[in-house]
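Next comes this protein:
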Amino acid sequence: MGWRAVAGTVILLGLLFAGQPPAKAAIVHWCTLLLTRRIKSQRVYREIDWSLLLMFAGFSSQSAALKRSHLGRRSRGIGSSLRLDQIPVLSGVTAIISNLVSNVPAVLLLKPMIASLPDQRRRG
């Protein structure tokens, strides 16, 4: 392992232990390795799956739009009316939604519904 990789890893660990968000620390680590120019930037950019990156950017914007929409505000009531607090019902709804869209949007859609349910650890 080269000195650049070791230096980048030390910087990454330092940022993480300093309390920086993991995404920010990873970007700084990536920039450190990119700026050392061991590999040309064009070669790195060719390896990026741009369509996958664009898809996840779309998921983020769809999630934000869903939270602001009428459906996002009503999702708390929807979770209790669907009886998602029962594991078989939650499993079935999750399977249906994840087959209709995809796993990531399904989780983003179900997250506010699940958050409004009573805490299962408090059942006695």
In short: The chain has a mean pLDDT of 77. The longest helix spans residues 50-68. The chain is about 75% helix and 0% strand.
